[in-house]
Amino acid sequence: MEQEMFNQRTDLSELSRAVEQIRQQLGKIIVGQQGTIDLLIAGLLANGHLLLEGVPGVAKTLSAKLVAKSIAATFSRIQFTPDLMPSDVLGTAVFSPKTAEFQFRRGPIFGNIILVDEINRAPAKTQSALFEAMEERQVTVDGKTYKLEEPFMVLATQNPIEQEGTYRLPEAQLDRFLFKVEIKYPTLEEEIEILEQQHQQDTQHQLEEIKPVLDIAQITSLRATIKALFVEPKLLAYAAQIVNETRQNKALYLGASPRASLALINSAKAIAAMAGRDFVTPDDIVKVATPVLAHRVMLSPEKEMEGLTTSDIITQIIKKIEVPR
Amino acid sequence: MRLLLVKVITFFVFFATNLQAQQAPQLALGKPVKDTLALKLDSSKTQVKEFGNQSIQKYKEQKEFQYGDDEPKGLSWWDRFWRNFWDWINRLFGQRESTSSGPSMWPSILKYGAMAICIVLVVFIIFKLAGVDFKWFAGKSKAVDVPYDESLENIHEISFEDEISNTLQKGNYRLAVRLLYLQTLKHLSDREIIDWQPNKTNVAYVREMQGEKGEEAFANLTYQFEYIWYGDFPVDRTAFAQIQQSFQQFNGVWR
After folding, report:
1. To the nearest 5 percent, what fractions of chain B are helix, strand and coil?
2. What is the ipTM of this complex?
3. Which pLDDT belongs to residue B158?
4. A with B: how many residue pairs have Cβ under 8 Å apart?
5. Which one of A280, A301, B112, B188 is least enclosed by Cβ atoms within 10 Å?
6. A320 in reach of chain B (CB within 8 A)
7. Burial grade of A71 (CB within 10 A; 0-12, 13-18, 19 or more)
8. B182: chain A residues, CB-CB within 8 Å
9. pLDDT band, residue A266 (cuts 50/70/90)
10. Which of residues 147-186 of A touch B (CB under 8 A)?
């Protein structure tokens, strides 16, 4: 009864419906992993790029493909390999004998949803080709700038265990990912369910049944709605304090950037909207703090030797800062 | 550069000459040579001269031959203290012969102890400048020591009745709702139903209330507080009266 006291200032019904539809689509194939699915949707709504990390076989690529298939937009897949060149990603100028001129042939980066599989298998040279595209949503080749079409979203996957033939992603690139979504092993019950599901129908057939539930116009509209959500100034200070503490904390060698503060607020807005609220609460910020910050900071060598992770330190930082109330 | 070259050449010349001089004498084989050197006996008489005590005393009285430190006149007690202190340090670490019957171990112990402390201090400063965390030597510290900042507003020190009354007089219903919520958290904390920590979110308290009496009512109060405080939803006198009643009912359960 008390809940009827507050009428939403922003109409979130379309957003709630869209979120529910995507959840259902992803839930058809991905068993469990509710947290991961929510972060995938939040990333999509917050206009961010996502880095999916997990050991082989936990459905990283499948999750990315499912998000892409849920949207009626152009999709490209780039398999990152050690010999991949920047021009293989961005495109290259090709000589046309008919016109006797060089013509720019667009690379696979020119799409709406880009799946970069095994991103850490390409060297830094190729990784850096993504910098401009991911941040400025444009590509500059031979002195000419080409705007990328909106929505533009990079879904990258990487395996944290394998070291042979892999390269650590440059910090500048890690900072461009809104979330690093860690995909864990399923529970025993979930694994049994996966087996039962696969026993009836294989993944390829299941994927064919997935139909888009959102178009480009809807996504653009939902993103605008989320951007307009209300954030109490004290919560902006709270988010800034968390990010600032990553720069002061002695356990961290590298703190998070101001881009991380923006990412924290934008993704908290998306989480708030998914919860049906048109304003952000401290809990929304806490929920996204680890996926937003853990990949942007670097542990000090001593803490790394102790076996701590950046996620552990972010959790400790959150515990240190008083919630505005 | 030229000077350096000259120095290097000089060094090598000196080194080579020295090395040659140090070489072991070699046996010269061949015809023996007749030794022409002969020692003569010195038959001159030696006259031993001695200083007279009077002469020594005369020299001692002359200021030019007095090498000891004079005690400057007009020193304050503070200056004398430091003078004595440095004299003591000099005696302790200086090459002074012991006047006692047997050699004492203490000066050596103190000397080497002080040297060891200095070395440790220098190493510590170097490590500290290099940013080495010394906790690492003590083993794994999974929980990093987090300094706890005290809340600017300790809910256990707020006089809620007075504060709510003052706030309502000013017509600030939004702030009054916040005080009502904090008062509720204090009630729950006093009864050890929740563990009050300034760093916990409201959702964390809602979780702690799971399975407790009034669980749903507390979730509703949290909802109202969040909409008004974080959502900036307007609250007027009528709405506040309704909200206050909900809080009073909930708190009444725990009295």
Report:
1. 60, 0, 40
2. 0.80
3. 76
4. 94
5. B112
6. yes
7. buried
8. 325
9. very high
10. none
Question: What are the residue boundaries of the structural domains of chain B, listed by start?
Answer: 81-92+104-146, 160-254
Amino acid at A47: N
- Residues A287, A314 contacting (CB under 8 angstroms): no
Task: Answer yes or no: are the C-beta atoms of A306 and B140 closer than 8 Å.
Answer: yes
Closest in A307, A312, A322 to B198, CB measured: A322
Angle between helices A282-293 and A233-248 (to 10 degrees): 30
Closest CA to A169 of A65, A58, A49: A49
The answer to whether the bond into A151 is cis (omega within 30° of 0) is yes
Q: Are A270 and A42 in contact (CB under 8 A)?
A: yes
Pairwise CB contact (< 8 Å): A3 & B223: yes
pLDDT digits (tens, 9 = 90+) for A38-92: 898 999 899 999 998 888 877 778 888 888 888 888 888 899 888 889 888 899 8
Query: Which three-class secondary structure state does DSSP give residue A101?
Result: strand
User: Which domains are seen in chain A, by residue range?
Assistant: 9-228 (3.40.50.300), 229-320 (1.10.8.80)
Q: Closest to B140 (Cβ–Cβ): which among A277, A279, A307?
A: A307
- Give dist(CA A194, CA A319) in Å, integer: 36
- Provide, rounded to the nearest whole percent, the portion of chain B with pLDDT above 90: 2
pLDDT at B194 exceeding the cut of 70 = yes
Chain B residues with beta carbon closer than 8 angstroms to that of A282: 201-202, 230
- Alpha-carbon distance of A308 to A299, in angstroms, equals 8
> Which member of A300, A306, A325 has the closest CB to residue B141?
A306
Contact A308, A80 (CB under 8 A): no
A322–B contact, CB cutoff 8 A:
yes
Mutate to test the interface with A, among B199, B244, B247 (most CBs of A within 10 A): B199
A232 touches chain B (CB under 8 A): yes
Q: What is the rounded CA–CA span in Å between residue A176 and residue A296?
A: 9
Chain B residues touching A280 at Cβ < 8 A: 230
Out of B140, B200, B230, closest to residue A232 by CB: B230
pTM for the full predicted model: 0.69
* Among the listed residues B239, B145, B62, the one whose alpha carbon sits nearest the alpha carbon of residue A249: B145
Neighbours of A280 (CB within 10 A): 26
